[in-house]
Design brief:
The protein has a 5-stranded antiparallel sheet with strand order 2-1-5-4-3, with helices on both faces. It has a single domain (5-120), classed as Beta-Lactamase (2-Layer Sandwich). The protein is an alpha+beta fold. The chain contains 3 helices and 5 strands, in the order αββαβββα. It has helices at residues 5-28, 54-74, 112-120, and strands at 33-39, 44-48, 82-86, 90-97, 100-107.
Length: 121
């Protein structure tokens, strides 16, 4: 019976990842969404409207997540639910959904709380 548990968990994780990707595709259709980076232990997906900036966005995503982890540990804040980094024109929303780490890039006028609600449903 325990031999089946990893298979069941794997199917659930795959289903959740697929549902998340479908939600992200709908969100990305909005004109003010720049794109996203979705990672888990077995795969990564990068979907940006401007593919020439993949490296830039991957670096800022990784750096921001690492900095947030370091700050929450340093100040004993516990785990961060999500992180918002806002620049001159673009802002970044980073969050973890299940085993998936998601970074979503958008124009700074986008209401990221609405995006979070869509992602969590």
């Amino acid at each position: 019976m325990t031999a089946e548990t990893p298979i069941i968990e794997e199917k659930i994780e795959t289903t959740n990842a697929n549902q998340l990707r479908e939600t992200l595709e709908k969100i990305k259709e909005q004109p003010n969404i720049v794109g996203y980076i979705l990672r888990n232990t077995s795969s990564a997906a990068i979907d940006l409207k401007d593919p020439s900036k993949i490296i830039d966005y991957a670096i800022i995503s990784s750096s921001a997540l690492e900095a947030a982890e370091n700050l929450t540990k340093l100040f004993n804040l516990g785990a961060a639910k999500h992180i918002i980094v806002q620049g001159k024109d673009v802002k970044m929303l980073a969050t973890t959904i299940g085993e998936n780490k998601l970074t979503l890039f958008m124009e700074k006028t986008v209401d990221h709380e609405k995006i979070l609600k869509k992602l969590k449903t």
